[in-house]
């Protein structure tokens, strides 16, 4: 903090730096003796920029993730403003802020960087993709605000992966939209492969908590693919680790849709167009305009133009004016082959005539009257349609609206008829005038001729060049452009965040506990990673033996099929099917099994117990809810967009006191914090009847409860959907509102299922508690009576009785779990009716059915496993397994899928019996031997989900129960990486190994390079670097790269990293203008 | 007392007639043949009751060891399972069985209470002691929470054991009293009920210890209210008209009803009830007659089917000129109750009763016994009762 303050107090223009100079710099200054003043300033400035930047990046740079982890760092530092700047105002409490942001995104090319910060004249309507503006978010405005309040320049540093050096510059933007450089673009060394750093200074603002931090937090929620670090003015670090392992899809460019194009956009486009015809212009610039559509538009424009200009096109070579009053003179203009100009040949020339003969005039008038009448009719229809459209707005029901719309369509057909009639009139006129010779009087006045030529050119819009339209032409074109119906825009340009990502993000961010859909054996489950990892391993081994030429790379591509996982699971479970041994009593039987299983070596290795425990653990009443819904992309008014929402209901969440804290609005992943009430999203959320979904609501209609609701609207054209230029709130639009509403309702339905289920669990649990409370009393009484006269008085023990009675209670709880389980499987589509049915099934009468069902299950199962004798199974299972189930808290869901029931029993037996194996079935053995050698379970325990979870717990990393194992590992690694740099290395991937090994083991052992491409590259070792350096010459990285024959930018980066490590030890370094120079000591 | 001689002496002709008739009937078979679809409830000796108790616990223990889920089956005492037997004119328990499960939220508490009551009863029986319902409630207030609950459990236990409550040695708190021409023996004490002052003898709940010695009464009068009882006692009603007067201060409790039943069967006297002229009074009468629904299983041991409703009848209000202001308007609840009463089979069968209730429903009026006091305090003892008893004006 102090350091920063010091720096900030220096004015950027200060000529001398009072700080101690590092030795290399002194050398430089000595050498260069009295450098020019400008250069000197730049030297100091550049050094300062680099220092600032490095202080920001250092924490992440130190742990070596700067080139691996998508990261954005934001830092705000607060200093008391210099009194100089605030002389007039009361100097107290005037703070100035330094805003720094770094991201390791693509970076900007020097040429792009040149434009950065300028207002770009481009119109968004040319080609768009779903981004947050063209240069971040309002960069030019932020820049001008910054320099206008503080008078300090803007600092930018940016580097792309292709460039060796980053480009640093310090500048002011001017009112002429140009840059005035304080430090002209300078190449500097910087400690990252690609990225951008910006520094801005602000005054006249006051930092308060609750806006910037909130903004960053919400941004992190919607952009879980980036790690965001925010350091606030109080020096608190807010770290939002990345939560997903993949980037969202790159948005594709989209042409605008005619319906969403406004008059200004069209004008801009026309002005810039180099097309030769309007038709090609329309086709090329807009989506959903085909040749025919374009022709239709132009045709319509032409018709409109003919009426506005009172000139009728008879055919391409013949035109006639339309007179408004009888006493006006009609003119005929047509192309005639004439000799004119310098050429002697006959060429078509426009010749205007005045129609003079009465006969022709009469005919003309006849037609004209009809024509006018038709025009009147159209006008009338237009008026009616207008009225109907107004009515549609007011219509209450959709039915009414539809009816009115149908009326409009009918009128549209009428208009078509009229147009046809008009065409008939035109044809009539054409017949008369096309080749008429007599009764015409040629107009020869040059001025008049030109007027007519212009008129004709104007009317013939189909021949006009897009860039040269007249006002009338443009108006007609726009009218036509908007009158034609278009297909809805394509929706593939929209990139939503995705419901799975949203759910996972919220689970991780809020630390939710979610365990639905733990469908363990019916289908393969990712959560059973330990087991699937094993099969994968064995599969790889097997393949390696079969195909000895397999390379590491190919091995990586080997993946498991679902079938294999299921098969594997079943195989394991089959080992738990017990064979009946008649010689044993039932009580002894369990001991017997225990013994067998306890001795088995394999069983010790199988950590199935942990896996199952993990499942059971996760089926608790503490389960939270998270539901996300991403709607299919839709379009309204020519704008393609997608609505997505996610709602978390957490037992540990607090119920917000203010309604606005419930909802977070996003547009294109950008949080919207202002104008909450006016936003279409808020309004749509309010319009949902939350009571239907068992949620309370605030007075204003927003939902209330321990919930967090995020709604995101994405699309390439959302900027057109905002209420105002400030882009704070989306404008109300019917289809958008509906879309949001549907989205939320879909989530709501799932929430209702969850809440109902939770209520049920709570009830059951209450029941269990209550029953348990009465057990001791009950047993006491029973025991006392029995002691007086029961025949069992010597046989019973109080504790035993209590235990026995208690057993079915815990069973009841598992029952509930199973129900949930089932519901998860059935996609939670059960409604209340079914719930009631389930309640009914608990009644004792159903017990028999249950048994029967079990029988059936066994039957089915036994068909599969031929080995098992049905009769003995039946005897055995019905009596014994059922009591196993009762004794051991296993529940057999009454409605379970048949295969699942038996599995459940087996699974649970597995849990209790430490899941040891019995002597393996012959069948199983055969299968196993056929497939491959014994499954190796050695590493299973190391990587069970459970253990990973406990690791995560230790490190305070929240891991959703739903998360796949890979994700968990990743999360852990990530977090550990951020917190403890060392641990990262242990689990690091090949990339890291590649970097690490050479420096530790020196050149001897080249790492097993996974990619052939990198195999050929020179290996950068410390020795080689030291060889390349020499004692006399200061060398730049460029020179070193050349010496080492490095061709790849990643290797250059590696060289940079290594040099840094060598610095001070064997290598001297000096910095000049941000560039580093090295030489040997 | 000198005034007494001036009183008009009624001959109670009608009463004497039925008394004689009843006396002649002699020992008609006392045992009632119960219809097939009802449950046989027995009065059990101590040992037998205990045996039943133990077999029940054995069953329970077996069940626990089998499934861990204790279940108890007992005859349902819900309305639908209460059957009015026309022949014996009793409310009896049908054969519907109710199952109580320990592992059900609704019955776990009940079940535990039941078990606790069984334990107490077991103790009572072994030690040959009696306890009132109240006492049982106090053995475990925390568990029972309210005496209603313990009462219910007590009844459950007796039905479960298919026996009467008295056989379980649980007795009702003594809330009734009796005066009149009767001599009884309570263990070693001989009590003359004529000489106990106006308070009379509190009916002991431990009727096992009571022995009826002799009586020269001509009828038994059951009075709803203590106040009416006091009036009659003060007037020494039984001196003029030899009788036994009983009251339970409201609905007849088990002890009173049982005692009445004993008197009726042993002395073979006609029984009359004097209740308020309101649906509640009629209900009290019906309880004496056929037993309450709640204790229907014990009906055969408690009911006095041939009890006559002497008054106060609705028609009496006009006949004895009870002034309008002494008649109270019926509340909605009263009307509802009256209608409910009219729905009952035993009321439907008794046309006079039905007529009287319909009359009440028509007037929408009710009156207490005390309303007769408008004609003077002596009116009840000197005019109303003797006249009615003489003319046979009862239902």
Brief overview, please?
The complex is a heterodimer of chains A (1081) and B (395). By secondary structure, chain A is an alpha+beta fold.
What percentage of residues of chain A falls in helices of 4 or more residues? 40-55%
Poorly predicted regions of chain A: 1-33, 122-126, 516-529, 572-586, 599-620, 811-851, 859-902, 909-944, 976-1017
Number of strands of chain B: 17
Number of domains of chain B: 2
The proportion of residues in beta strands of chain A is 5-15%
Radius of gyration of chain A: 40 Å
* Average residue-wise pLDDT of chain B: 82
Characterize the quaternary organization of these chains: heterodimer
* Number of helical regions of chain B: 16
The poorly predicted ranges of chain B are 1-5
Distance linking N and C termini of chain A? 34 Å
Mean pLDDT of chain A: 71
With strands numbered from the N-terminus, the spatial order across the biggest sheet of chain A is 5-4-3-6-2-1-7-8
Question: What is the CATH fold-level name of the largest domain in chain B?
Answer: Dna Topoisomerase Vi A Subunit, Chain: A, domain 2
Protein structure class of chain A:
alpha+beta
Count every helix of chain A, treating DSSP H or I runs of 4 or more residues as helices: 36
Summary keywords:
heterodimer; A: 1081 residues; alpha+beta; Heat Shock Protein 90; 8-stranded mixed beta sheet; 36 helices; 23 strands; extended; B: 395 residues; alpha/beta; Dna Topoisomerase Vi A Subunit, Chain: A, domain 2; Arc Repressor Mutant, subunit A; 2 domains; 3-stranded antiparallel beta sheet; 16 helices
Please give a structural write-up.
The complex is a heterodimer of chains A (about 1100) and B (about 400). Chain A is an alpha+beta fold and about 1100 residues long. Chain A is built from 36 helices and 23 strands. In chain A, the strands form five sheets. Chain A has an eight-stranded mixed β-sheet with strand order 5-4-3-6-2-1-7-8, sandwiched between helices. In chain A, strands 14, 15, 16, 17, 18 and 21 form a six-stranded mixed β-sheet that branches. In chain A, strand 9 (about 310-315) and strand 10 form a beta hairpin. Chain A is extended, with a radius of gyration of 40 Å. Chain B is of the alpha/beta class and about 400 residues long. In chain B, a hairpin with a 2-residue loop joins strand 8 (about 185) and strand 9. The longest helix of chain B is centred in the first third of the chain and has 22 residues, at about 45-65. Chain B starts with 12 loop residues before the first helix and ends with a helix. Mean pLDDT of chain B is about 80; it is low at about 1-5.
